[in-house]
Amino acid sequence: MENPDPMETVLEGEPTPPSPSLDSQPAPSAPSEAAAPDPVAELKAQIEAASAKAAEYLDGWQRARADFANYKKRIERENADLSQTVAATVLTRILPALDDFDLAMKTAPADGDGAKWAEGIALVHRKLKAILENEGIQRINADGQPFDPNFHEAVVHEETDSHPEGHVIEVLRQGYKLGDRVIRPALVKVAK
Question: In which region does residue 89 sit, left (phi positive, over 0), alpha (psi from -120 to 50) or beta (all else)?
């Protein structure tokens, strides 16, 4: 076998490594703006990103805090409403007994053997009314007032000259409210 001619090998397509030339020296690298980022600009960008993230977290925290405050107020309102509903239910059951005391006091003897007994009943009646008032129960003032279907229930309409038309002549059964809530409307006689 013969050694092939080195020139022929180059010509056949095999690449040869470039030979170092004395004339070609690598050019000194020029500082490139794109290659080396500005540290101040990079820090400013990081600060802006962190500030945006902090603002986002602050906004989320403030919203969560407001939502919690609203939730807390709603729960307190619901508990107060529930408490008032339970109290109204219990107190409504006591009102017929108070009605009986009211009727008994209208017919109580002023003197004689029944007077002492009537004084005891009057004392119990006053105590019961005081307990109900302490619980927030208020009588609905109806006598002589204009008829209001929110507070009164008309049972009888009567012709009269002593009261203006549409006004309550007489309260047949006392009405009560707990706060602003009517727990029992007053049964009334209304003037025509």
Answer: alpha
